[in-house]
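User: Good morning. I'm curious how guanosine-5'-triphosphate would be positioned relative to this chain. Could you predict the structure with it bound?
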Amino acid sequence: MMAEAVGLVNTLDNWRVVDKIIMSTKTPEKKRIFGKGNFQSLTEKIRQTAGITAVFMNVQRLSPLSERELEEAWGVKVFDRYSVVLHIFRCNARTKEAKLQISLAEIPLLRSRLKNEVANLDQQGGRTRYIGGSGETLLEVHQRLLKEREMKIRSALEKLRRKRHLLRSQRKHKEFPVVSVLGYTNCGKTTLIKALTGDSGLQPKNQLFATLDVTVHAGQLPSHMTDLLVHVRDISHPETVNQKMNVLNVLKNLQIPDRLMSSMIEVHNKIDLIDSYQFTEPSVLPISALEERGLDELKKAVEEEILNSTGKHILDLKVDLSTPQLSWLYKEATVQDVQVNADEGSAVVKVIMSTAAYGRYKKLFAGW
Ligand SMILES: Nc1nc2c(ncn2[C@@H]2O[C@H](COP(=O)(O)OP(=O)(O)OP(=O)(O)O)[C@@H](O)[C@H]2O)c(=O)[nH]1
Ligand SMILES: [Mg+2]
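Assistant: Good morning! Here's the predicted structure, ligand included:
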């Protein structure tokens, strides 16, 4: 089997490969990962190369024992695939939920380390005793603490899940439309959402998997509404066609309803990086999220699609301001605009609502 050892420089939350050494190895299950000669020359190379602050072993999981032996021999931190992925996720996690997910993913790692440490203690003759008359050994105490930690994280995650569910059902009740922006990693989703919503808290990054969380933003579409998928493509990327296939494949596996698939809007992003963009596909919207080009057209197309696919109406309703009509509309529909006529004590309200909500409105205020 071939395994790769890749030297890495870790700059806070950014990994840069500085050196790549291919080594022939035995299977990682064997106690020794490298042959003796290979191991010596690799050790020399690592110790002599300036700038190596960590080594990535391209194996799924290193045993805690191998990890410690390699770290002692090389004098730097050693990561396997599992710990690298955890590290990338930890650097990118911003919301409470993402952080909790990572803590949960760390538990098996902590568990296997714990076993190894206790086995070590045993080897050194420090056989663990029962602690403080509790009838538990040291290993059992630690295992119990880990179990408790795991339960705590799981219950915190469950709480967040319930809260999100509530938010979603509240939004549904108010009939707030939802636009889902999706696309291959690094295609410009965060940049586009930022440009459309003016949310300055968002940070687009030239980095894979920068965004791990589902994010929700209050967008300013021409009529504040949607229930639609927007597929963003980096049209400047040499692999753009494969990326599109990949995304469509994922959607297929997610079994997205036909209605959403057929109304999906395809956006060609990063046209500023292309010399002369050709409008080959008429249904596609070319934009530059970065330079904020083509966004008005996109907003219009989104609004049109929503009206088509969800049957929501934009209505101008005349309301009597001495009645609860206006507050009902604020609560049950999406109010766009209110033009008050002070002399008449009335207002014309531009509102978006479903056929069902409109029916309720007419019934409720029929006599007013
Ligand atoms: N030139 C150019 N660069 C863009 C455009 N849109 C986004 N980018 C850049 O592309 C990189 C990725 O943008 P993001 O918005 O973080 O992409 P993303 O799809 O959210 O990426 P992940 O969250 O990692 O999946 C950043 O460096 C952006 O500045 C664009 O229209 N033109
Ligand atoms: Mg992103």
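Residues 1-30, 216-225 have pLDDT under 50 and may be disordered. Residues 312-364 form a domain with the Alpha-Beta Plaits fold (CATH 3.30.70).
Let me know if you'd like a different ligand tried.
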